[in-house]
Amino acid sequence: MGSKPVCGIDLGGTNIQIGVVGPKGRLLGESKKKTKADEGQDAILSRLIDGVDEACAAAGIARRDLAAIGIGAPGAIDPDAGVVLEAVNLRWTDMPLASVLSRRAGVPVVVDNDVNVAVWGEYRYGSGRGASDILGVWCGTGIGGGLILDNRLYYGRFKTAGEIGHTILLPQNPPGSRSLEHNCSRTAVVERIVRLIRANRKSALTDMCEGDYDKIKSRMLGKAYADGDALTVEVVDSAAELLGISIAGVVTLLSLERIILGGGLVEALGKPFVEGVQKSVKRHVFPDRCRKVEVVASELEDHAGVLGAAAIAVERLNLNGKD
């Protein structure tokens, strides 16, 4: 990174992570916000600016001292135009995020997909180091993906490559339950567990959330899974199998060497979930030599998107080249 720090933002459907980043990916200051997408676009933008200012204060600098802001946003992005084409979780369509946020912040802004920036962060500083062909799959409120091919982020002709969460997994299902995201995101896992509880299945989650199933988030799922709650284990293991099937198709197609799993659901469920996905991938890839693919967890976790967004801003704006 250059002599001036860069702000990296990971804008998720539920949470916003913000960090001021110095040379070699060193975090100088951080802040966190809730996205609160239901409050609308202006409210989200105001929280982003407040969060940038808080992170700058923690780093001992002012916003005007930043060289740039890099932001990863959910959904389909045109990174060249800095436009969020469609973000279902934020209810945004054709939102010119780079120009709007730059005007408010007073510094240049670079926008990319949230999982693209997270995978790039892992490639530069985390569990992607040493690999040249990577698929990252982030499971949280939804499911997003990012591809690195031959040491470069791959965007495709329409600039939207990597949207594995919206690929159709179970076409025979009713509408709204066919895609990977509809079946394997944290939202989907919780919905399925709650539906089964209401069909008279027993789960420790009922007591854990005190009967308010809206309170079930990734951390609570992780505890129930680790404690061996039978219903949670059944649903989570099914999701791991389905996720592995989808990933195996991409590995078969592109002959990838490494898969990185990240996001709140993966972090909460931990190693057993990653191993479940890995076993499914290796059962379903073709040919046999593709079973050498590595399936690993994010090393940087919450910081992957922040560090990756900052790194992409530096590289795209040519602020100083590589570390």
Task: Explain what the structure shows.
With 323 residues, this protein is of the alpha/beta class. It has two domains: 6-113 and 302-316, ATPase, nucleotide binding domain (Nucleotidyltransferase, domain 5); 127-297, Nucleotidyltransferase, domain 5. The chain is built from eleven helices and 13 strands. The chain has a five-stranded mixed beta sheet with strand order 3-2-1-4-8. The longest helix is centred in the last third of the chain and has 25 residues, at 230-254. It starts with 5 loop residues before the first strand and ends in a 7-residue tail after the last helix. 49% of the residues are buried. The mean pLDDT is 94.
Annotate the secondary structure layout.
Layout: E1 6-11, E2 15-21, E3 27-34, H1 41-59, E4 68-73, E5 76-78, E6 83-87, E7 92-95, H2 97-105, E8 109-113, H3 114-125, E9 134-139, E10 143-149, E11 152-153, H4 180-184, H5 186-198, H6 205-208, H7 218-226, H8 230-254, E12 258-262, H9 264-269, H10 271-284, E13 294-297, H11 303-316
Helix pairs in contact: 3-11, 5-8, 8-10
